[in-house]
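Hi everyone, sorry if this is the wrong subforum. Our group has a chain we'd like a structural model of before ordering constructs, and none of us has done structure prediction before. Sequence below.
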Amino acid sequence: MAMALLFSDSDDSDLLFLSDTDSESEEERSASSRRLKRVNYMQSLDDAEFTFRFRLSKPAVETLLTRLMPFVRVTSTRNHGVSPLHQMLLTLRFYALGTMLISVADFVGVSKSTAGRIVRDISSAIAHLYDEYIFVHQQSVEKFYQIARFPCVFAAVDCTHIRIQSPSVIIGEEFRNRKGYFSFNVQAICDADLRFMNVVARWPGSTHDATIFNNSVLRAQCDAGMFGSRWMLGDSAYPNRSYLLTPLLNPFTEAEQRYNEAHIKTRNTIERTFGIWKRRFPIVALTMRLSLPNAQAVIIATSVLHNICRNYSLEELPAEVDLLLEDSETHEHSYTEVQDVQERAVLIRNYFQ
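Answer:
Right subforum, don't worry. Here is the predicted structure as tokens:
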């Protein structure tokens, strides 16, 4: 009970996790009384219906389950213990609906507290695959160039807000963003194939995009010259650097206008990546009623799953629930501190002139 109270002043029982004890509660006994024989969805659903319900294809689920087996345990030694496959499908269904835990608990025939523990454990296990599926590479330079003829780009960077329930009366206001709701401000970079190459999901919603970048490992890698003479593209919320190019706020010449047009079209890849991610996994588009550590695990886990879907070339799926996706972030206050604009000026003069 202490863990739930640490992160929330709400009595919403969907907050994970009220207890880690294995003792059988009244709720579990009630769930046991209504439990039916669990369906093998790998056999009962055709490929299209399976992918729509669980957001991953059957081959992708089989591969992922093999990778997760060392981290997954049957949650009960009593009858009706939940198999690793059903644990994964319950979690994927939770990501696909972004709904209350009781809905996915009934889906597999377990109690809500058991469903909560399953979502926690599977999300953590998938998040541990981060380094295997999310990493920075420079293989998209030519593909980025084909978008709008912007040279030497290896990534686009931006932040997006992931809604959460107010964590607590003590630290809640740190998570209230400038639009008035509680969130994590999640920074990510993507390649030209709309795959994540880096995701940072630990900053409260009130944090400015530039602050997240300036305190990230990514900036340290850029400062160290790890990516050579290649650039990332960011919006005006970021500082313009020799490795991070931002748009001109007031373009005057034709060359500056061409630079801005190419910049906007190329940087749009990160906006598209966020959109596909949130439509495929509405849990990150709706309000998460989870403790902070579990919300972070879900954010990272779904970003890993997003890359898996891109690797399998799975079609972009419409959301199964109604979503209100926000438009691209518009920044009322651009980055105003001293910036390194020499690299940008040389590029405009020599390439976009």
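For your construct planning: Strands lie at 153-163, 183-190, 196-204, 231-233, 244-245. The first strand starts at residue 153 and ends at 163.
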